[in-house]
Give the backbone structure.
Amino acid sequence: MHDNADRTDDRVDSAVRELAPDVPPMSQHAFEAGRARVLAGPAAQQQQRTSRRWLAAAAGVTALTLGTVGALNLGGGAPPANAEAVAVLTSAADATTSTKAAPGEPGQFRYIKKVESKWFGVVLNGAMSANCWYRQERTEETWIPADWKQEWQRRVAVTEPLETRSCTAEQAKNAPYGSTEIPWEARAKNGDFPPPKFRRGPGLGAKVGPETLTPSSEPAKELPPSLYRPTPEYLAKLPRDPQRLFVVLRDSTCLADACAMHAARSALSTGQIPDDLRAAMYRAVAKIPGATVGNRQDNLGGRVGTAIRITEPSRTLDLIIDPKTGDYIGDRTVLDGELHEFSSVVTGVTDAIGTAPR
């Protein structure tokens, strides 16, 4: 019974981190305090609020399924990004279209390496919210066969806290309600990997070797295909028309124009977007109101590109591309003037599963 509950918790942790990466994990202390406040209220009010929240959560997690892509409201008419941003994105789209990457041949594997550096918050000394922040890096390597239905491989490594704010590394590692993904490695057909496991409590980021995960005897209820968890069939049905694709991106998590940037970054960071769709995605991003050009010599993971930027009152979102080649390099998020997270993506083709391209 407890094993099933733990597996469910791990799947929820993994899904929430993937679909809502900007939200810090909730501590057990804060959860229990909030639960007590909810239970203290009138039963009818509690039931009404719970229903609304579950409906909102379900809408957010489900994102867009294949059935909803064709039923979107294509209205709008909002002004596009400024001319400089449009020029950079158009150049990248043209380069992507003219320099198509050769698809993997039978026996070859598409290699995707994603490095994420992110700040997380934990609770110390009985506080009601996060009061200790630490930066951790997660490296994910994936090998995808030319036939997606065959066996994939994924390898995940997670570091100890690399930097801290308002606490020491030892305090961050020994926070009573901390949670961190355990390094792992697995193979699975069609990319149906087992859910990762999480270490909770003291020992955050402890050095351990990768754990080999095997499929559970109980099949997990998988999330439907989406921009965040694409399949070839899902990607093939997405519109290539920039205006229609802009609406898909915008409405994938909310109805605000800035959500199109978040969705585009999440989709491109999978490394699984085909060239024609990536070009269309760049043109769709050019329709986000307020998009500007940030740093034209932006170095991320040793690769230099141009940052396309959306600026909000407390948050800045960067999408970093190489306009000469059309390559997607990565993304960066700044919250309240401080770097919150960044990720870099490298793709290639290799002849052997488990080995990086030379």
Residues 2-35+52-350 form one domain. The longest helix spans residues 43-62. The CA atoms of residues 59 and 150 lie 31 Å apart. The radius of gyration is 21 Å.
